[in-house]
Amino acid sequence: MRARYGVPLAITAVGAAGLAYAAGIEARSFRLRRVTVPVLPHGMRPLRVLQVSDIHMVRGQYKKRAWLQSLAGLRPDLVVNTGDNLSDTEGIPEVLDSLGPLFDFPGVYVFGSNDYYGPRLRNPARYLLEKVQGRHGLNGNAPVVGAVHNPWEDIRDAFDAAGWLGLNNARARLKLDGGIELAFTGLDDPHIKRDRYAHVAGGPAQDADFSMAVVHAPYLRSLDSFTADGYPLILAGHTHGGQLRVPFYGALVTNCDLDTDRARGLSTHTSTGRTAYLHVSAGCGTNRYTPIRFACPPEATLLTLTPRA
Hints:
Layout: H1 6-24, E1 31-40, E2 47-52, H2 62-70, E3 78-81, H3 92-99, E4 107-109, H4 113-116, H5 125-133, H6 152-161, E5 165-166, E6 170-175, E7 181-186, E8 210-214, H7 220-228, E9 233-236, E10 245-246, E11 250-251, E12 265-271, E13 274-280, E14 299-307
């Protein structure tokens, strides 16, 4: 009698090959996404905004560090860092080295949960379970016990020393070359309930040339508030684009209450009759315990903001 091992062995081999590709190749295949967003007032010159998100730096990630450094060659008008810089409590020196060349440009930042806390080993299937049950982060789950605290103050101090503006539940302004004045409104991470919209409410600055909103995790309550207040553009990260996407289908989870159709890239969001552009970065890293990506390469985004039609 012939042994019937062919099909199970074939499935195992395909699974192993897919895992090897996701961890060894795609997770290191860094890409630059280019997007044009028609949001500026008439007559304003286009602006080049580089969004970097979800670096999740772990010591020894030399290819990621070199790629991030190379982004300075884009010569952006503005850098927006949408959080989750760490996945290693001792990774701060490499984060700062990676971003060092970008400190030559004006920048703003918000933090994500992984800036504050070290990663934990989790069963990836829990993300699907939490999606079904409507639980994400601390928005429905019990508080984390025994979390590892990252030295996030060191990142904040280094970013501030470089001239980048912190937007964690804050409003700020900066001037670009040519006298263009930009206004920003940001929130601390909604994923761990640090967002305080009441502290920054009031809508875009009327005396600035352009205003935008920034948040790490694109929870609907934050998007609704920004949009209802009249912000034309919201930048976010956190989702990793789903991280593991099904070809011809897309993301299975977003790790927040945002729908999977908007897990990465440019879309729109509507609230109280107003509509804003939303860009969600798929980010360029992963949690150190799940260092894989499939059909969702790591990325940064160069957004070219142009005048409205």
